[in-house]
UniProtKB/TrEMBL annotation, chains A, B:
Pathway: Amino-acid biosynthesis; L-proline biosynthesis; L-glutamate 5-semialdehyde from L-glutamate: step 2/2. This is Gamma-glutamyl phosphate reductase. It is found in: Cytoplasm. Its main location: cytoplasm. CDD domains: ALDH_F18-19_ProA-GPR. It comes from Funiculus sociatus GB2-A5. GO terms for molecular function: glutamate-5-semialdehyde dehydrogenase activity.
Length: 435, 435
């Protein structure tokens, strides 16, 4: 370690410890107190609008001078309308139901010995995101609503914007009973690496960024990570598919928002329907400027480029689609379970039996029948907010709402009960009656 | 890698792949089919009793010759009564409710567009346990009940017993529709290391063994681990405690089963009650041969050895107790949140306010009021079975029953629905009505 690395490491350690201490107080606040704090944040952001816009203008000027790509510039740019929209989003989080304090189990173990399983905050979240300043407002508010402290690290190009936003948020918190230390901002890449090591203070890392960045985070921390490295989604058009639905679903899944993780990457088509379906879907896709790549059988039907093995494991995030002809439902399921990323996969069929087999046997967070993969989304599921989408097997899996930011604890209240009474020769039985 | 390591690695890879494939078929079986398989296993184990007892006798003879400690020998030894008890336990698992197929969310997103969140098996479990052959029967049955394949690795001393048991279990499965490859046995330490690397095939590792072994597993795999390295549990005797209850709870938590992870390791006592309580509890504990170690203040009241900083972070798993006098409820909570292992901590008090603060602010899987820490247990909670106890923050946390062996997937059934209909100028609204 260099001297500056040691300094950075000990500073982050201090920041994380402060966040944890502040979060412990936040964790026990009432829903009302948290909602009032969220309103105070919205008011403080409104009051700081000139400073926030000025900071963002400086970020944008520097980014433009450095020549960042247009889509990144669009995400970085925060004008008054976008800021007002984000502040409205802050107030919306106040209206979501509180994920903390839900009683999941309430059980009489024995007379006067009562077990409860109650949701509670995780503690401290570490959220690493790209240069999009609106994320600061959304994430901070979701953290406070769920009773968690949060350590934020935004993309380097947005550093002035993030600083102005976090300053306003913390200013808003000083008007409430909440210690402003629950919201922290890191500004350097070195600090990010330190953050990933702090498993004694940080309970969950949420990386938002490129696939390779998420994979880097997953491989470099012992802290649980909420996120997915890849979204390789499939649509399988069964032999019993309604062709019109299949075309509409394929075009929507591929072209509605190609950069989204729930967009279609590989189309699987049953052999029996391929010669009828493929020319129709190809025409619709090509009208939307989608580049097609097919396996051998597909290329016998369509005049398109040949797909290679690499295509089956590629998330294009662009107007490109690979196509494969399969000989059975089982073939399709095997392809998906082999090459997919366990994100979202759909079958188009009028056979309820084929649909049931697909939904049961495809191993993915989302398994859909006769609808677009694009529905895989926390807002569309009615979660009110989406914290991230997880492709891990263990819960939380799929789109994760506020409930992904809480855990639970078991509480037992007794009256001097001891375990020895329930074992040995004269053992009392347990009642185990749900209340 | 040496040639033999390469060979071992590729064999384990094949075993894990076979297990995953067999588990995919198991995952979609009905509750009845799984329960029939569990009965078939029980019958096969009964039929193989002579072979199993002979194999165990050979293990015991070798272990005795090698001079293994008495408690380990007792766990290794499988006589006819113990085997019959374990087979009865197998049949009991058949009677537990099926954790697979539970509908957790059922929601109309729009007319004809229905979302369900349904529990499903994880896939393949890797379970590494000590030389206790009864674990083979319990774990295999819990895996099948939850629809998972399982790769077992038992302690080296039990290798003959484990082989005989797994042979009988697989023999039982051949009488059913379940591929016997869902239950696999590894027999060497090298294979364990290989198993920890197979994150593409194995979905959850459950290590059962010493703290240092669990920590080793946690530090050497990317696969999620269900387990806890340490159980440093506390009892805090508040100034408003009922002394009689406090003595009974302390003695029970420390002496009922000192080797258990939910046993008491550190007693915290409020200053205001210390001079009255400590002599009474010390007398009761010393009658049970508990060695006491105290902080400075405790040693002013009791004639016992001095505790050092190391005592606060030690799980004795033995008849030893460290004692500290604290000056407030807050002091007690801080001590627990600093030195505890987030397993189970209890307060003894007649003040409901102090109890509420303790239950809210202590960060542990189990937070108890006026009862022994020993109640932290899946069977005592009424889970029917306990797969393990987790001290991680993310769920599953605390004692984990069969529900810890399943995950969930989101299913959507539509009728040609596409996402484009719900965005843009003429966007349809979502209904989001729970069914």
């Amino acid at each position: 370690m260099t001297a500056s690395q040691i300094a950075s490491s000990s500073i982050i350690d201090d920041i994380a410890r402060l966040t944890r201490e502040a979060a412990r107080q936040l964790a026990v606040l009432s829903t009302d107190a948290k909602n009032q704090a969220i309103v105070a944040i919205a008011i403080a952001l409104e009051a700081a609008t000139p400073e926030i816009l000025a900071a963002n203008a400086a970020d944008c000027k520097a980014a433009a001078a450095a020549g960042i790509p247009k889509p990144l510039y669009a995400r970085l740019k925060l004008d008054e309308t976008k800021l007002q929209g984000a502040i409205a989003g802050v107030r919306d989080v106040g209206r979501l139901s509180d994920p903390v304090g839900a009683v999941q189990i309430h059980r009489e173990l024995d007379t006067g010995l009562i077990l409860k399983r109650i949701t509670c905050p995780l503690g401290v979240l570490g959220v690493i995101f790209e240069a999009r300043p609106d994320a600061v407002m959304q994430i901070s508010t979701l953290a406070i609503k769920s009773g968690n402290g949060v350590i934020l690290k935004g993309g380097q190009e947005a550093v002035r914007s993030c600083e102005a936003l976090v300053k306003a948020i913390r200013q808003g918190l000083t008007q409430t009973g909440i210690n402003p230390d629950v919201v922290q901002l890191l500004t350097t890449r070195e600090e990010t690496l330190e953050l990933l090591k702090l498993d004694q203070y940080v309970d969950l890392i949420i990386p938002r960024g490129s696939n390779s960045f998420v994979r880097f985070v997953q491989n470099n921390t012992r802290i649980p990570v909420l996120g997915h490295a890849e979204g390789i989604c499939h649509v399988y058009v069964d032999e019993a598919a309604d062709i019109e639905k299949a075309v509409a679903i394929t075009v929507d899944a591929k072209t509605h928002y190609p950069a989204a993780c729930n967009a279609l990457e590989t189309l699987l088509v049953h052999n029996a329907i391929a010669s009828e379906f493929l020319p129709k879907v190809a025409k619709s896709l090509q009208e939307k400027n989608v580049e097609l790549r097919g396996d051998e059988k597909t290329c016998q039907i369509l005049d398109i480029a040949a797909a290679t093995e690499a295509d089956w494991v590629t998330e294009y995030s662009d107007l490109i689609l690979s196509i494969k002809v399969v000989h059975s439902l089982e073939d399709a399921i095997n392809h998906i379970n082999t090459y997919g990323s366990k994100h979202t996969d759909a079958i188009v069929t009028e056979s309820s039996e084929a649909a049931a087999t697909f939904l049961a046997q495809v191993d993915a967070a989302g398994v859909f029948h006769n609808c677009s993969t694009r529905f895989s989304d926390g807002f569309r599921y009615g979660f009110g907010a989406e914290v991230g989408i997880s492709t891990q097997k263990m819960p939380p899996r799929g789109p994760v709402g506020l409930e992904g930011l809480v855990t639970y604890k078991y509480q037992i209240v007794g009256d001097g009960h001891i375990a020895a009474s329930y074992s040995g020769a004269d053992a009392k039985p347990f009642i185990h009656r749900d209340l």
